[in-house]
Amino acid sequence: MKNDIILAGVGGQGILSIAAAIGLAALENDLYFKQSEVHGMSQRGGDVYSHFRLSDKPVLSDLIPHGRANLIISVEPMESLRYLPWLSKHGWLVTNSNPYNNINDYPPVEEIISEIKKIKNHRIIDAEAIAKEAGSLKAVNMVMLGAASHYIDLNFSSLENSARSLFRNKGEEIIEINLKALRAGRDA
Amino acid sequence: MNRLLLLGDEAIAQAAIDAGLSGMYAYPGTPSTEIMEYIQASAVAAERRIHREWSANEKTAMEAALGMSYTGKRAMVAMKHVGLNVASDSFINSAMTGVNGGLIVVSADDPSMHSSQNEQDSRFYGKFALIPCFEPSSQQEAYTMTFDAFELSEKYRIPVLMRITTRLAHSRASVERVKYPVPQKELKLPDDPVQFVLLPALARKKYRKLLSAYDSLKYDIRISKYNTFTDSKRRELGIITCGIAWNYLMENLSEAETDLPVLKICAYPFPADLIKEIVNRCSEILILEEGYPIIEEGVRGILDNGAKILGRLDGTVPRDGELNPAIVAKALGMPVSHGKNVPEVVKMRPPSFCKGCGHSDTFNALIEAIKPWGQGRIFSDIGCYTLGALPPYNSINSCVDMGASVTMAIGAADAGLVPSVAVIGDSTFTHSGMTGLLDAVSKNSPVTVIISDNLTTGMTGGQKSEGTGKLEQICSGLGVERNHIRTITPLRKNHEENVRIMKEEIEYMGVSVIVSSRECIQTASRRKKTGASNE
């Protein structure tokens, strides 16, 4: 078993929480993994990404080789396309449809969506609507994790456990919102 | 739980706690910041009363760590690679004095300059100072090595340099902890009361001692478990790797289901006889180093007429930038896989000021205030406000090293560029700007120093800033005239007034300081937040 996952988004969108959730689930299942992330300057509204490598054998490189990722999970549509050089021919691209527009030359959303549709295996999710429905716009990241969970070799219940432990210091209400978001993402 | 989910930085931090650390010293700098942050947040560190406060800069941190070591206790100091330049005076002399309690100096290099001004390789400093250097290839190795680094430090009574790079520092994996942590050391002063006295007559003796100890140190490093030679039947190509370059190599070899003779170097000074061994066995040698071609230069030597060497110096591997699996595959002559290209519709998304950031209001006021004198006279520094170089501001003309804004403005004013303005952050000012300001006061330079004060060390994530609440007092103490120390609040509603104050001080033909003070929007919102966080 080997899952090479790229997480993409904009600084502040919570992609490191997605990574942490997968990491905790991997730990629970005694799987090997390495997860490389970006800290520092680009976190100020720049593009951020994380390489997550999950396997039943020891993981060597911290970085996914080009053309080998099984999955891109993106919290932002344009960002999902930035990592296509890493996506394998049979890989899945799962992205939020709502743009995060903090630059002057942000392209028309239709153009982005039409590029995404050129990828054979893609899922486009209105994660904002689902997160809102679950109780908080901030839970967009958990919606995306739920939507991508079909392509990750982990039990969904392990991901639920991770969400519980990630938000355990935030109180029951926040835990429930995030679990709801995770499940609604899975069913989307 | 004995297995933890840790960044490379955190693995070192956890190991130091488990190895009986008594004092942790650091100045924030990507990619090293998380080492101190982890120890600050650790309940065990609190229980063990490990000293763990930020220092004003890397030099004061290094010296305080050396002081902790003087008392016989174990100490660690962490910094980013360019921080080691700042700490280099005490770092190099600490090899001369030696240590009492074990001392580890962690330097986190940033090849490809993800968040830095250069990609210098800290291993050079180890060689320069005759200090042994460890370079872990994985989080688990980083954990284990920290224990061995303390042991080695105490055995040879010398600091040990631990060099990591961005990808290890900021990559997470599960790490197995030791069952029985090492107790902290008791206070015990050095047997030799002048061990730390580098008077020339004493220093000459100490240097000879350092040189002679270096030979046995080399032997210890040679037999270290961190330098391993794995042979194979193949003879056409042998590989020498160090640190995380080994991961990229093994990724490619295991993918291709093949093997090659591999010498993995994770401890320095590098083992010359192991290098000779692999060179003698193979017709060609490929050297894979994350960073500068240090081993490669050593192996080639000046004459470079021995074995056929491939590496960064002959272009087999790019001369600059970090390695990755694709670069290593290409160097091995293996096929390189590639997905689709990035479609043209994808635009750059550079970092930018957060919405509502005080720095942006400061720049808006400064751009208007300086207009009458024209462009090309704003010297800046290192921090979030360096983003003033990007559109729509395009307003700063320098960003060189911590504190250089003040001193470069002085030099430019000396040359006749009057007025010259420095823009420096509060934490950068207390790191290395204060001495420059003293220079300005001493010669009454016609410069205006704008301290863009966000009450924190912002760029690295909001650590304590040493000058918070004291900046005016510090400037006044350094001799800036009280009526030319102005404090403004960078808000849009104060724009006109701020422009006026800036103009007044820029016009003044002496040293003036404007403290433009408003809390970082990130730390402010974290402080106010009581509920959810999805970050």
Structure description:
The complex is a heterodimer of chains A (188) and B (535). Chain A has helices spanning 15-28, 77-82, 109-117, 127-134, 140-148, 156-166, 172-187; strands at 2-10, 32-37, 47-55, 69-74, 87-96, 121-125. Chain A has a single domain, classed as 3-Layer(aba) Sandwich (Pyruvate-ferredoxin Oxidoreductase, domain 3). Chain A starts with a strand and ends with a helix. Chain A has 188 residues and is α/β, with parallel strands linked by helices. The model of chain A has no long low-confidence stretch (mean pLDDT 95). The longest helix of chain A has 16 residues, at 172-187. In chain A, strand 4, helix 2 and strand 5 (87-96) form a beta-alpha-beta unit. Chain A has seven helices and six strands. With 535 residues, chain B is an alpha/beta fold. Chain B folds into three domains: 3-224, Thiamin diphosphate (ThDP)-binding fold, Pyr/PP domains (Rossmann fold); 228-331, Rossmann fold (3-Layer(aba) Sandwich); 358-527, 3-Layer(aba) Sandwich (Rossmann fold), CATH 3.40.50. Helix content of chain B is 40%, strand content 16%. Chain B contains 19 helices and 18 strands. Chain B has helices at 8-18, 33-41, 43-47, 58-70, 81-97, 123-129, 139-156, 166-169, 200-222, 245-255, 272-281, 294-300, 325-331, 358-370, 404-414, 426-442, 471-478, 495-507, 521-528, and strands spanning 3-7, 21-26, 74-80, 103-109, 133-134, 160-165, 171-176, 227-230, 238-242, 262-265, 267-268, 284-288, 308-310, 378-379, 420-425, 447-453, 485-488, 512-517. In chain B, the strands form four sheets. Chain B has a six-stranded mixed sheet with strand order 2-3-4-6-5-11, sandwiched between helices. A five-stranded mixed sheet of chain B has the order 8-10-9-12-13, with helices on both faces. In chain B, strands 14-15-16-18-17 form a five-stranded parallel sheet, sandwiched between helices. In chain B, helix 10 (245-255) links the parallel strand 9 and strand 10. In chain B, helix 4 (58-70) runs parallel beside helix 5 and helix 14 crosses helix 18. Classes of the chains: A alpha/beta (188), B alpha/beta (535). At the A-B interface, helix 1, strand 2, helix 2, strand 5 and helix 3 of A face strand 7, helix 10 and helix 13 of B. Strand 2 (32-37) of chain A pairs antiparallel with strand 7 (171-176) of chain B, so a sheet runs across the interface.
